[in-house]
Every structure is written in C-alpha cells, then in structure tokens.
Specification:
Length: 465
Amino acid sequence: MKRKKIGIFWKVFLYTLSFLIAVIGLTALLFAQQFENIFEEGRNQFVTNNVRPLVEQLNGKSETEIKALAKVFHEQNIYLQFYIMKSDGELLYETPVLWFKYEGNDVQKQDVPNLNPGINNDEIMKIMPEYITFPLSNGMTLYVINLLTENDIDFSLAGKIVIALLVMLLISIFVSFVFARYITKPIVTLTEVTEKMSRMENVPIPKERNDEIGLLTNDVYKMYSSLKIEIERVKEIEENQRYFFSAASHELKTPVASAMVLLQGMLDNIGDYKDHSKYLRKCIDKMNTQSRIISEMLEIVRLADGKTPLQYESFNVRSIVESVLGSHQLLIDAKELSVTVDLPDSLVCHTDRNMLSRSLSNVIMNAVQNTPEKEKIQIWSEDRENHVVRLCVLNTGVHISVEILSKLFEPFFRVDKARSRSQSRSGLGLTIVGKTLELIQVAYSLENTPEGVLFWMELPNCNER
C-alpha cells in the first residue's frame, strides 16, 4: 500500500513549530540558573530582613539580656532557628528546638523530637541546611539557620513562568499555522494552476505579490502564455502548410493534366490534334507555367526560412521606381494608364536593393493588372519619424472587399480565379512581396481608400542628399 505523502503545509507548520519550541526550550534552560539564583537571593534577603531587628537589639547588650531578647524574638518568629556563639566557641543561646547543632566549625543535622507544633516531621526532611552569620558586639556571632519548608516558599513566580511558557507555546502554534498558510497557500495554488496549464486549460491572471513567490507565479504564467501563443502559432503554421501544399498540388496538377490531354490526343491522332507542332507549343506553355509556379514556390520557401543572404546598400529610391515602371511600360501603354511619380530626386535609403526592387516590381505589376483602362497609378513618398519614408502606390478605380483584402497575401489566392488563370497569374505575387518585405524588416499594408487601393511600405534609414 502506497504511503500517503505529507503535504507541504504540514511540513512547513511542523518545521516552524519545532523551531519555535526549540527556541522556547533553549531560552528556559538559559534562564533556569538565573531564576534559581534570583530565588536564592530572595530567600536570603527574606531571612536577613527578618533577623536584622534582632541584631540591632542584641548589639551592646549583656549575655543575660541577649538570651532574653533572643527568646522573645524566637517566640515571635517561630520559623527562624538560630543560635548565638561567643568568641571562645561557647554556645550562649540556641532556639528551644534546634534543628542543627554546632560541633567544632561545622553545622550538622541532629535528630530531635518534634517540639515545634508549627512544623511536622515530614516537613523536617524537606528542610535545606544553610545558615547565615551575623557578627555581634563583644566578639559574639549570630548563626541563623536558613530553613524554609514548602509552605514557606512562594510558588507564584514559578506558576507565572509555567503560564508564560504555555502562552508562548500557544502563540507559537498560532504563528506557525499562519506562517505555514501564508507561505504554502500560493505554492498550492500555483501547483493547481500548473496542473491546469499542463492540460492547456484556461487559467486566470495571478494576483500581484511583491516577493519571490509572486515573481515565480508571474514567470510561470508568462511561460504559459508564451507557450499558448507558440502552440497557436504552430497550429497556424501547420494549417498554412496544409493549405499551401493543397493549393500547390492543385495548381501543379492543372497544367500537368492539361498537357497529358494534349499529348494523348496527339498520340491518338484525333481530329485537330494531328497538328503536332501547334499542340506541342501548347504543352511547352503548360510546362513553362508549371516551372514558373515551382520557382515561385521555392522562392517563398527560401524567404520563409530566413536564410537568404542580404546585401544592404544605399541607393536612390526614384531610380528604382523608374526602373521598375520601365519594365511594365508596354502593359501600361496598352491599358492607357496615367502614371505619376512624386518622389524627391535626392531621396536615398539603405536596405537590400534587389529585395526591394523585386517587391516593388510585384506591387506595381499587380496595380497595373488590376487597374481599369484609362485610370491612374500614383506613386509618392511621405516622411515619417526616425528617418523612415513611406513609399505609396495607389491605383484608382478599384475597390477590394474587406473579406478578400485580408486573404490577398495568402498563397495561390485569386480574386477571379478563371480570369487569373487565363492571364497566367499564379496567385503567389503578393505572397512573395509579403515574405520579402518581412525578411528585410519593412512594414507594409494594403488598404482601401476613397480613390482606390493603396499599397504602402515604410523604408528605414532614409535621408535626402
């Protein structure tokens, strides 16, 4: 049978209580001798205070007067036993019941009948044999036997000490309980919370504590939050990968299937397929389409890996824009589009020129392809903070719904799939743009405006020369 473990609360409680009890016990031992000395001094002081009047009376008196005064004093103080000795060692007076008799220089106990009705024989055995000397005139000495019975001892101090120890013990139990609860409650709560975290259940934000336990709780919660975000990110990546491979397989399957149909028709010499030259060229077009899609897919993979080497350099932004526009001038002229460029001639930025040029080329190509005939494309710059310049490309006469706008950077997404396929669009252009700009750490966005659709990117490290 498995033994039940003791919880951390009871461990802390018992350890704390044991420590406090040990401290109390050690304190009692350290002060025990002091209490005994205090009691002894009090006992001697009690005898001295009671005998001093007798000493004052006996000084300067004759032996006869001394005996008479001693007898009267003993009758008034029956619990004090004493004797008076002369300088030559002769005993001058002793109390009627002498508990101890003098022999030589020692005081020895003597068994005597119980002549004192105030004290019984049992109490005689509990007497402590000590005496106090008081010098008198004429060389005589008063010996007072320091005899106190249990009835004579005041136990109030001892009782108070016992009560104080009991009170300290109760306080120690209470303090140990409160301390153990204060220390272990957040730990127990943290254990319960971490158990929920292990099951990926939702947990509340921990309460603020300005100590190490509070810091530990906050760190665990931050780790849990980061883990949840990471798990969600991994799920999103996996979902994007599934979508990407599904869309890629579909995109690659279409030209392959089409080419297979053409080749099978030529093999069978069916109807118009006998014109092999015509349909072989179509097969080549299909393969070229497939090759371009594969190349774009590989480019996206390279960009996503972040291992593409970057070459930062300073360049003139206007020259890059004009170069890109020149490569698309035939389509611009065919659609009779009006293009205006409002960029400072001296605007210089420092980033990867090739990456920026490829991204800008895709953006302008996308704008040219989606702008209606005889509409406008406007390109300008806006100064931002910290040497950042926002490069804007606006194509007028179009509007994109909000639902579609958020999906335009997804792989293989097309607004009009049939029309896009006929124009040999793979649906990867904006995906490549997004990955490229993220790689060179350039912020970007695609937005609707009253005039049309605006794409902007914020170029860092820019200035005018």
